[in-house]
## 1
Amino acid sequence: MSVVPVSYYLVLSAILFGLGVVAFVFKRNIITILMAIELMLNAVNLAFVAFARAWAQLDGLVFVFFVIVVAAAEAAVGLAIVIRIYQNRQTLNIERVNLLKF
Amino acid sequence: MTPFPSEQIENFHRLAPEIILCAFGIVIMVADAFVQAAHKRALGWLAFIGALGGLLGVHFMAHDPGNAYSNLIRADSFSIFVHLVVMGAAALAILGSFNYLDEENIQRGEYYALVLFATAGMGILAGANELVTAFIGLEMSSISTYVLAGFRRKAIKSNEASLKYFVLGSFATAFFLYGIAMVYGATGTTRIDLIADALQKMMADQGQVASLAILGLALMFVGLGFKVVVAPFQVYAPDVYEGSPTPVTALLASGPKAATFAVMLRIFYVSFGTAGNFWFWAVWISAVLTMIVGNFAALVQTNVKRMLAYSSIAHAGYILVAFAAGTDIGIAAVLFYLAAYALMKIGAFLVIAHLGQPGEKRLEITDYAGLGGRQPVLAICFSLFLLSLLGLPATGGFLGKLFAFQAALDSKVVWLVVIAAINSVIGAYYYLRVIVAMYFWEPSKEYLPSKVAPTLAFALAIAAVGTLYLGIFPARVLELAKVAADSIYLR
């Protein structure tokens, strides 16, 4: 039986994390930025699972549950903040949320 | 055969502050639904009692030190010291919030509950003996403070502060988490003490640390560096500190910074301490950048709240100077600095909260003109905090800097200390400018000073007395900090 090596998953995880970072930096819509953060967290989850497999431990799998819970809490708070911004400013473009400046 | 009761009681003792804080937080959330708007302040008092209860919980920790919950949490002198700083900061911030919230018409129970939850998160961070536990603590404190930063819901600036803090904060925690995954992959464990063993074994076997572990540490430095506001991860801080409600800024500047520095000390000194100080130059460069960015940007600010935000970046740089020492004395210096810094920063921000008046309209330096004649006691208090931030002898800020530079010099980190000393001289300009404005500038005519509420006066008095106490009788606290520094390595 051929098994996909663990390193493949790590490379995939790094690519996903990188895509998340790129999307975070270049996208202008706040919702898209939230999605980029979710992508980064899920890339981390993939890395945890892959390492758990490599070390033949359960720990890494348990961490994933914690990350999922935290990500859900973050999304809830994040969307509430986005709603506030939209109600007060009528925009979701991050470049127009620029009252505080150097 | 069943060790259940005694073991559980030990666990409860070692996590007592967090359990008490969370219990009070939940009670406040529930009670909020039944309390009439006119009596919301009672919830604030409940929260204050909760924070004092947290301090009582530290007492339980102190009497029953050790590891709890299968070694996930450590109750040692180090954790106790940071707990005291964090809980004290929370209690002062709560006291300073009562009148501010009334003025802004946002007197609500969830504010106090969130402060308590954030403090519990910082406590977990301070006691974490395992990286994912540290992550949970970090997120508990972060998510609560994201909401607190946006608590003036109608104010666009507050919304913006909240959004920026949230977006960049979650970005940074993703890096921290990825770093944890890397370290886990390299060592097969996330426990801070076991990582040290694994790395030591790696050094013995291969003569070097796996690059995966170094990458992990670098990623964790990004995530934690963001929370303690060191360059180059400081961009968000001035905006967030300026836009947040001022008592929240006071909490943000002191609590999370102390707790995150605590977990940084554990990770860098304990986990990676055995593997040679390869992180030294990263900390060195970051310290220099942090001090320069903070001080030079503060020079050109006219908004006092924003200026103090930059000043807190500069102070993170001074703390990194002690951090770079890499010795026990360095740890003790960091801890002492954190305690002194929390007192003076909270004091300064609470004065700003009072002088801002409803809507936070009066934050410019010109609004402080003539304060010395109009409200002499308040002006003296504010001057004391500013002089302590500047580092004048007989204040906590001076001795904090002295111990930090001393620790760095002992480790032969001479150039960093030279740069830090030059920076503190530059920093004197913007602190003194505010004091000059208060005493020598002509006051504006239309301004009506408002009375300082008794609760706020009490909080300011504690902060001022604490700052002087640390400056004049540092021996006791320094001794505690040294004991704490020793306890970090114990198994």
Note: The interface with chain B takes residues 10, 17, 20, 24, 30, 33-34, 37, 40-41, 43-44, 47-48, 50-51, 54-55, 57, 59-60, 63, 66-67, 70, 73-74, 77-78, 80-82, 84-85, 88-89, 94, 97-102 of chain A (CB under 8 Å).
## 2
Amino acid sequence: MNDLTQSAFAKPRVVGQRTPRIDGEYKLTGRAGYTGELLAEGMRYGYPVPATIANGVLESLELDDALAMPGVVDILHHGHFESLHRSPNSMAHGDMVSEVRLPFEDERIYYHGQYVALVVAETFEQARAAAQRVVARYREDDGAVVGLLHTDTQGELQESAGTSRGDPEAAFGGAEVKIDSTYQIAAESHLQMEMHATLAEWRDDGKRLVVHESTQGVFFQRNAMARIFGIAQENLEVISHYIGSGFGNKLFMWPHAVATAVAARMVGRPVKVVLPRQQDMTGGGNRPASRQRVRLGADRSGKLTSVIHDSTTETSWVHQYVDACGSATPSFYACDNVSTSQRVLEVNHGTPCPMRAPGEVSGIFALETAMDELAVELGMDPVALRQKNNAEQDPASGLPWSSKHLDECLTSAARRFGWDKRDPAIGSMRDGDEIIGYGMASCTWSAGRQPCEARVELRADGSLFAACGTQDIGTGTYTIVAQAVAELTGTDLSRIEVKLGETSLPAGPLSGGSMATATVLPAVAAAVRDALDAIKEVAVGSGGAFEGSDADSLSAEAGGLTDGKRRVSFAEILETSKLSSVNGKGSAAPGDERSEYSFRSFGAHFVEIRIDPEISRVRVARVVSTIDIGRAINPPTARNQVEGGIVMGLGMGLLEKLDYDPRDARLINANVADYIVPTHADAPEIDVELLDYPDFKHNEFGGRGVGEIGLTGVAPAIANAIYHATGKRYRDLPITIEALLASS
Amino acid sequence: MMDDSVHSRTAFSETLSLNLTLNGEPLTLQVAPNAVLLDVLREQLGLGGTKKGCDHGQCGACTVQVDGQAMNSCLRLAVMCEGQHVTTVEGLARDGELHPVQQSFLECDAFQCGYCTPGQMMSASALLEDDRIGTDDASVKEAMSGNICRCGAYKNILEAIQQARVQLAHDATAPRKEGVA
């Protein structure tokens, strides 16, 4: 049975309530130790030397001057590096990496910023100075592939990534109304505030490797390193207590971590590498550029008869990454004839990787802009068009939704936004010199869940301890784990200690894909229940606080056990039986419900933009959103995720673009000033409503995850608003001031 | 005339003596002439609260206060701080009590990953004392735009700063504890 409306979480006291982050004070006082600021006894500093070309061969390295500089210990490069193995790069086996090519594997240069050497020195200043003294000589080859959007070359078709139902081509051919548009999105940078960082140390005479990494997946990195270095997983420890966010580029290990661990072994000391921002942007992951053709067929009433969504994205020459743009499309609208296809083109860029709502956010831009075009073609309200095509069940799987409230999202957000005041005529709404545009789009993200283990201790000092080998990348995982423990034990949050981010803890999931909450909390709950069973055994045993009682007659209440007449605290029960603690282990995994229901979150964004036509300046003034994520375990942190997604969506819509030099494929704007992200002054007025329909079919807590969905749908809502204001349809992102000027 | 490598060897192996007041405590230390204040704080003094986000004065994560002014510590050589008062996030709380800005950041959930947060708070606590900056939301947003938050918690950051403003005004007018007795 998965319908757990009778569970402990049907009417929770702590879960679902506003809870300040339990790690907040650490972050706010500077005591939270992020990887880059950790120090180790005798530590040395590594500083990578990046390739300055994007396509060619490293012909020589002149190292003598650098090696002679003060404090320089060693310089690693091709020919002076350990012989290692590649990771099998398997998602199923948990050893996926971001780039399978090992550092310094050969002398071929595949992208700008690829490491050609790693300088190790006694101080950071010495390492940086020596890295700048290394002279690399290259043979630069012609024919660098500058990027998908610079070429008409077709990428390679990914047979396994496509889907089809019905006869979409025939249905499109015979459709009464047709839209056939192509959309292009520039490559983006994650620009997570903390750059990639590694501190590696070999212990026990080189038998054991301990790595601190700013990562969204300690277990994935441990497993991959075990394969690469050929050592037992038990002799590897990966630790990540605080992460300066990731947005996907810290899911899987990058070559700098391998190079750092090798350096630590070669110099016989701990070595720390913090990537300079420029290198983080060239070689530490990006959202690949995409080109998408969307064809929509509909009848005059607005009913979709065909959806054909063909996508191409970039990958690098050294690693195959598929950014599946069409993955939400088969489930988005009720339509009998739907197909998606995916192609991938190799380009001379650093390897792309998942970035927040990977694939789908790009696909939803194309689909939801096409839907706006269809609404215009039909003379139909964009909200009504979406309601007309609402998928009552998942048309991709044929299964009922576990819980879907898109219609309420659309109507509630439209009401709060004031959509009824929208005059659909182009450029009809003005405020002084500004033209106002109203646009909207639906948003969605799948609700996944992974297997997970957890451990809980009840301690004689009255404290509780919960542990899981997942991470808190800023989403608030520490806090929701504590909330779950508090809920089930009645213990005050201040007495609960949570440990995450270590491979010595029970195996936990990646912090990604909006899956951590639904994955981790059920395992924590199972561990709590196991610990409660253990303390009940103690309590009813000889000399116990409830000696002779039936364990089943006891229940947890306010940090203790009660038989209905008398409550004794956990601490007192343990004290009475002369125990320091009891331990509970738990595990949880998705089950049969996955074949009975489809799990996906939906929502809607409504956007007001204002354009000053004299200077082609567009600003997002207001965003009103309603999102259904099941239950928000901690509403303020969940809302913060959606608000942050909206801000990032503003960047995707108007600002963000990795610029590659058309002459040689070098990344031009690899810095925080020239790659433009939204600042505080860019942030619009934001009104986010989270519906509260716990999805107990998904898990007993009712939460479906919240990290990605807020970002999806923002960029098309902006583009649709700009169309409403200007009558110009922008199908390429970002919609920069240059683009607006060019077409004004 | 010395050639480059000799010059570099001399420069990078020598250290200079630096006297400053750090978070209220006088301090003397030896620093390399090319050492940046941010790196001295993080690597030499073990004060990791000041963050490195770009090392180029573009993101604001490294913001500290030098003689009460918010500055990017990544753009300042350590030796330039001779005789100056430097305050980092570690010096924001007083006597074990969170600064009103820290307290309001906690209450308003004005952060996610927390990495830009020390810089945000050092800028915020400086601007709240700066008469040149207006108290309205637009002025605060403009003044805070040197501190990028990629998690996008701007809405809550603004709310936290305005809440701290109220608290600071209240603290300034409240009777002193010893006076109440």
Note: Helices of chain B lie at 4-13, 37-44, 100-107, 117-127, 137-143, 154-173, 177-180.
## 3
Amino acid sequence: MWDYSDKVKDHFFNPKNAGAVAGANAIGEVGSISCGDALRLTLKVNEDTEVIEEAGFQTFGCGSAIASSSVLTEIIKGMTLDDALKVSNQDIAQELDGLPPEKMHCSVMGREALQAAVANYRGEEWKDDHEEGALICKCFAIDAVMIEEMVWANKLRTVEDVTNFTKAGGGCAACHEDIENILERVLKERGESFNPDAAPIETPVIAEKKPLTNLQRIKKIEAVLDSLRPQLMADGGDVELVEVVENTAYVNMTGACNGCQMAAMTIAGIQQRLMEVLGEFIKVVPASQMPKLVTIQEASHA
Amino acid sequence: MPDIYLDNNATTKVDNAVVDVMIPYFTEQFGNPSSIHRFADGVARGIKHARSQVQQLIGAEHDSEIIFTSCGTESDSTAILSAIKAQPNKKEIITTMVEHPAILNLCEHLEKEGYTIHRLPVDKCGRLNLEAYKKLLSDQVAIVSVMWANNETGTIFPVVEMAEMANEAGVMFHTDAVQAVGKIPMMLQDTKIDMLSISGHKLHAPKGIGVLYLRRGTRYRPMLRGGHQERGRRAGTENSASIVGLGKACELAMEFMEYENIQVKAMRDRLEQGIVEQIPHCFITGDLDNRLPNTTDIAFEYIEGESILMLLNKAGIAASSGSACTSGSLEPSHVMRAMQIPYTAAHGTIRFSFSRYNTMSEVDEVLKVMPGIVATLRKLSPYWDGNGPVANPEQAFQPVYA
């Protein structure tokens, strides 16, 4: 069975705000096609302040769907609609101390129900903006639709390309056959054939040739981290450059990256990218492993 | 009350008597049965004895028709791959829509390699249409593979009759009988079944041991080549302890065949009748008149299976579900889809599968907690309103699907 956190179990066995809110003026009804779960969220919104005064859920779904619904109602009660809309599915999952990768869509369903309810209150029509496919990469929770879109958009050709662009396949590697199947299908539609030994597609970045000064190096590292930041933030995490000593960059992984079991993978990915852009060997090390800093005075007495 | 195990179609407890006969094969009788010295003698004899115990249970004509493998899946793969290797000109395979993934996923893979796969549909009770089957049989078909009994609903398929039909058309016939062996009597020597798969852990033997029955004279190509074990038909040093254990388990299954079909069936019947009487809006799936004696699969409408299992688990009861969320793949049960069980019921199917270790008092315990569990979850369901489903559930709740 799934490895659910105690919080998930608690919200499942003792759900909060179960049932429909009487006199609700915002109703969102959504479902997830990938597992057949469905959720109705009913809210009572104060018409003057737009504060959510009451929230209730009715869910047809598994343990984590019920727990996600329950925790969502707890999070948004007392929020204004605008603040509630900022609640991401990562927030929902985080509040539950995490969900198994296969079950992340349960938290997505919660966020969508909220968007649908707000749209309903404002007299708008809510449309789902993302399609969800079969889960391919369990290490990074990447589904088939996402991979296929990236293969189309970036003309990817190999599993390595897919890993570089989506992270899918960058963990345990068990999904490489499935990724190859997607590549085979898309490449065929594109009129090409899949060749596992094809060279990785060229990245637009050209490596620097001249040796770098430390200041140039730091600036370049910052630029690379900035370019990777949106991807990390999409997963609820972030990275901060702490210090650069010769060819070692010390970084802090923050947010969801902090303590994430894949943090080491992410660091390896950042290191790879830095070496490609800087054209020199760079070691990326968590700041926690940095030797103790010394002040200039201390150093001069040493 | 100790925990109640009603998931015997998933796996079974190894019988204590089976463990007892196995132990010496880890310690004193550790020799390689292929060796000449006396460390090997007893092992070779133990395996020979086990082979005849398996032969007895399935009514095979010769003990050399029993090939020990590592599991049911290996037996299934060996059978199908052997048939297509031995008959390279035949490019079609007939199977059903409700097979175990061990067959379905292999067939899907072969489809990519150019094979035509005919998947026989089932009706709402899970039954096959033999007329449609007959029309598909031709000299293009390499093998027919149809399970003896379905793992989810327990529905029994007419494999003996289907094997006759295949034989008349000159087509090989394999059956995945992992759920049927030990629960229903069989006499393979009186049938036209060419190959049959057994899995040890479904009948109180350990995991990691299986059998492929291969009728003498059936054209065969091994999947594992190497040493001369199993007369060269399945190379690899014998899993001697598990083979001996499986032999004992087969002997016990033979002894308990009547008990399985009378007492175990009575527990199953009482459970499903009790549930259907006490709980509104639920129904039993599959072919009610033609099922394994130990299996019942009940669809609870408007609620979802994993939620039911979690509450059952909390009450100390183990069962399983055809719901999407309980499978690692998140695919809803292909068996329920094939039977066209409505979506709001298919997700709430719970399978209770018994063994000879269960008792009537366990049945009573399940009957005590089940109504409360269903009521609790229905209270949360958008399809439910107070004491019954909302009027026109499909219209009253129409979520936007992502």
Note: Chain B has a mean pLDDT of 94.
## 4
Amino acid sequence: MNDYDPQAILLAAFERLRKDFGLGVGELLAAYRAVAGGFGVEGPEALREVARLLWCHSLDLADDFDEVFNTVLAQTARPAPATEPVKLAPTVDKPPPPPSEPPVQATPNLPPVAPSRTVVEPAPLPVKTPMRPVRDIQGPELRAYWPLSRRAMIYAWRYLRRTVKEGPRDVLNVTATVEQTARIGFFLCPVYDRRLKNKNHLVLLIDQGGSMVPFHRFTRDLMETACDGQKSQIQQVDLAYFQNVPPDHVFRDPHLMQPFPLGNLLALIDTDTSVLVVSDAGAARGHRRNERIRATAEFLSLVKRRTTQVAWLNPMPQSRWAGTSAQFIARLAPMFQMDREGFGNAMNALRGQSRGRQR
Amino acid sequence: MTESPSFILPKECRPPSGRHPNAPKKPEPYVAANALVTAVNLAIYLRRPLLLEGEAGCGKSRLARYVAYELGLPLYEWPVRSTSLAQDGLYTYDSILRLHDVHLKQANKPGMFGAKSALPGKATTGRNPEKPMDYVNFGALGKAFRLDACPAVVLIDEIDKADIDFPNDLLTVLEEPWKFEIKEADDDTPPIVAKHPPIVIITSNKEKGNLPEPFLRRCVYFYIEFPSDKERLKAIINAHYLIKKSGETVAPPAAALTDAACERFLAVRNKGDLYKKPGTSEFLDWLEAMRGFRDLPGLIETLHSDEAKLPYPGLLFKIHDDWWRYAAKP
């Protein structure tokens, strides 16, 4: 191992991992520093350990990491000059790593939940599966479309706040107390405030089934993050499902089994309510149907009579709206694509701050 | 005794007398895998926080105590709660006490209200309301930043319990200038700069989705696995009883018992039908119970037989379904 060049290996591995692992130049420099400090100089395996410690931030990524590192090692081992592997790296970028390994490795330390159902007595099963680090990224091929992470959703929901002071005065206001004392010259009494409460109300209408099936994962995330009041800090969320267009009835459950009249839902909406519709509006299949546009327009006009804070979230990217019903519906309600920026803009619309971009 | 073979601290950071007076006195029984030692060393060398994940009861928090003991550095623990703010780790400011002291001073002045009406109670000993710095309570990180002689080990325990903004707020402090300001202080008070950046060990045990990317990027990440081979489990048992002994004499469990217990425990654990797998700490408790709690006849035979139910199941199985399967057998 005379031609062992840790920096070249690191650089080549970094170039391939950078995007998927969300690494910055700082991380590459940190690895260089570690090598300069004597970490990982013993050989490629020690170097792998160092790079993994610095760059891998979950168990899921470890499999990907090993694979990439192996290919990089194999490439850097052949040509002797240290500069060459760096040039090699981008060309190898195109063929994706063979997808045969990760699925096999993905399972061993998961507790299998299903096979233990032999107990006949209705023993209360744990509702929640036990802790294990979340493995939500299954493989490189599934990572391609990941418009919004749950974290991003929670963040965005928080902007939807509408705080009102409410209840008894029971929060000590230290600044005001000190100020009052300074003004009067002696301490009279502490100053109390009313508690700030979030009085926001969200009506979430989710298109379910049909062309929305590929997006169920995201709509479920949306629903879960919004309804978890502690995280999203939305006080009241009313949820309804529909398919394609909300007609006279919407549904309480995602399987569209429990209908209730649309009028009941509309009755909940007042001027302070935000209404978010999540639907592809026909953009997924690329159709343009007049009846769909008309029905949607009717529905939107009903909603707009009650509140102006309406937004439409479209899981299809904006480039696919043209020529479909979505293009027309986007004129009736501010429509945003479902990525970080679009979702943020939708939140603005839901707060009544902007009407969205006029297209 | 500071020549610990495992952890490496740069020379200029070593405490002058070998051990800092506030370093943990009690040895911490811990068996660290080589990879984990490398991770700690890398974190120390690069001055990056070490993020530990792993199943509950696998010794995430204990590592911090172990590192602090081995290196002879003081340890500041910061158990994070759902209401914790990043600011709390640096300092909290007691404005009310300051106000109270001002008031007390005035009341004690003769002629103002009359010295007689002075409030009974503690005088403002050692505190002067004119000096804002007297009312600063430093948190774990704040204390670590103020150490002069050597770095400290800071344990930020269960970081994912806090609000989602928490890690991001921490980042700004755990970075290069390594300093923070006390905004209540006078303008001419210099900011608090860490002479030796602390060794930060962060544990997290829920889903990773909770931690933001920029934060993860900065950390050295290590996943502590359960020691799934018998030898390591035995090494851990030995370490525990070796240290427990100092003080009163506690006989380690008989070799046969240890063997049988390890075997049965690993068999049950690796079978993979548990909803909640017991961790190392639960295993040690269980072993201790079998060793010294009460003499059970035929204990080792029970352990060897796959059919018999486990003794003291309450120490291992904490979910009804697991209990049902292994403990409630007729």
Note: Chain A has three domains: 6-104, 163-197, 199-350.
